[in-house]
Design brief:
The chain is α/β, with parallel strands linked by helices. Helix content is 28%, strand content 30%.
């Protein structure tokens, strides 16, 4: 028991030290979203009650209600999932980001389906810097309309941001050549960005790390990544497997709120005098319309885009006498039709298409623009390829026949492997030049055998979806070649 009026000096010193530490700490908030993919509005939540959640109008109310100094950032992928996004090429999402307003947004890998000119126009419409730190144009030129770094003033502190796009976590930290762009090594660009931000006076360095939605990065990937770079305080990623914050060395790794169903609230505990990051508090907050309401100004922006999209997507472009399903036993009618379309439009000897291109088939009856987007949601372009017969034979032998459809070719399989490739006129002639039409998804990487074996190739700059729409306006039936496209022998 302590006697009245007496207090141990050591205990008193500890209490005074703790009080000083609390007095020397400030808090600021970063709200983070990602992979909205055009989902700009509140949507009905499954289950009884007709509840709605999500969207920028709800997020605006949540954001405005925050009392601490705050900013909002986005990790990219702005238009790939819904008509409002497809039709505006991301402009609908950028206008919503502008209205919050966000402090910075990173370009996502899905946004790189835009041409450099389309991306430039999007950047010009943005009131915030669009970050793409490891992105280059042809000729290793940095896009002048995008930023490598950005600094935001939050409360009395300068917070620096940069971004990186991870095309494949399994093949990280190497240069990647895409159809229209080049991605430089992430660690190389990180060191450059961190130095630039430190030189500009940023006390906290934040990385917006976008991962290809088609692949997955586990926590070990992030631990390995941050071990190779220096002085990154916080990584905000759109990788959905990051369910809770963790620390790797001195770097905190947290997830963004995804698909505008929720927003990540990241509280930063900063040392008052130096701005040094002392701790992180993270919550993924559901965007509940009943709880937060919706901002009228953003509702007006969203309503305008939805009305215009609905009118455009309901426009009829063709008609099918019979249904064209995604699968019909061993056949793949939707992909076969697309292959025929490419071959007919491009006037080539043959066409090849991955079965990953179509996402749905077509029912019988009228086909609308919206139905076409639902069936072929990817922004793939048609590429012209010239290749010798013997190289084409080797290329087809190396492909997985279960993953492709062809037009103008007949494949003979044995135990699921392509054993022989012929044209409709007969065997391939080794020295003859054959002209192919393929989507750029089949040649968008140096490891693809078509690219390495081709004599030459050229991108038509026409979307596969447009080519299929051209066919839809001209035919009502789906012809199947006599003898089929693939002969299977077990």
């Amino acid at each position: 028991m302590l006697k009245s009026g007496r207090f141990p000096r050591a205990l008193l010193a500890l209490l005074m030290l703790g009080a000083g530490a609390c007095a020397g700490k400030e808090q600021v908030v970063i709200f983070a979203t990602g992979r909205s993919q055009g989902r700009i509005w509140a949507r009905e939540v499954p289950g009884p009650g007709g509840k709605k959640a999500g969207g920028f109008a709800v997020f605006k109310k949540l954001y405005d209600g925050e009392k601490l100094p705050k900013i909002a950032v986005d990790t990219g992928n702005w238009f790939s999932a819904v008509p409002e996004g497809w039709l505006t090429r991301g402009r609908s999402t950028i206008d919503c980001l502008n209205a919050i307003p966000y402090a910075a947004a990173a370009v996502g890998i899905e946004d790189l389906s835009l041409s450099p000119e389309e991306l430039r126009k999007l950047a010009e419409s943005s009131r915030m810097p669009l970050l793409a730190s490891n992105l280059y144009l042809a000729g290793n030129k940095k896009p002048s309309f995008l930023a490598s770094t950005s600094v935001a003033q939050v409360g009395g502190h300068r917070i620096g941001f940069f971004s990186a796009i991870i095309s494949s976590p399994q093949k990280a930290d190497r240069a990647r050549h895409l159809t229209k762009y080049k991605l430089e090594k992430e660690t190389f660009e990180t060191e450059k960005a961190v130095k630039a931000l430190r030189d500009s006076g940023a006390s906290v360095i934040v990385m917006l790390l976008g991962v290809n939605p088609k692949e997955k990065a586990d926590p070990e990937f992030f631990r390995n990544f941050v071990s190779k770079v220096s002085r990154v305080d916080l990584v905000i990623t759109d990788e959905p497997s990051i369910k809770k914050p963790f620390r790797a060395n001195r770097t905190w790794v947290v997830g963004a709120g995804l698909e505008m169903s929720g927003a990540a609230r990241i509280g930063l505990d900063l040392e008052k005098t130096t701005g040094r990051l002392m701790g992180v508090n993270w919550r993924d907050i559901p965007l509940d319309e009943a709880k937060y309401g919706q901002d009228p100004g953003l509702l007006k922006i969203i309503s305008g885009y939805r009305t215009a999209a609905a009118a455009h997507m309901s426009r009829r472009i063709g008609y099918f006498s019979a249904a064209l399903p995604l699968r019909d036993k061993m056949d793949t009618p939707a992909a076969d039709f697309a292959a025929d379309c490419m071959r007919r439009w491009a006037r080539t000897n043959a066409a090849i298409i991955p079965l990953s291109e179509p996402a749905a088939g077509f029912s019988s009856g009228p086909v609308t623009v919206g139905g076409l987007y639902e069936a072929f949601p990817l922004d793939s372009s048609v590429v012209f390829v010239k290749i010798r017969g013997d190289d084409l034979e080797r290329t087809m032998t190396g492909m997985q026949a279960a993953d492709i459809s062809v037009s103008g070719l007949r494949l003979s399989l044995k135990d699921g492997v392509v054993e022989k490739t012929e044209t409709e006129a007969g065997p391939l002639v080794p020295g003859r030049i054959y002209r192919l039409a393929v989507p750029d998804s089949l040649v968008s990487g140096k490891e693809h055998s078509i690219l390495s074996s081709a004599m030459e190739f050229a991108n038509s700059r026409r979307y596969l979806r447009e080519v299929i729409g051209w066919c839809l306006s001209r035919q009502k039936t789906y012809p199947r070649p006599e003898g089929g496209r693939i002969k299977r022998e077990n």
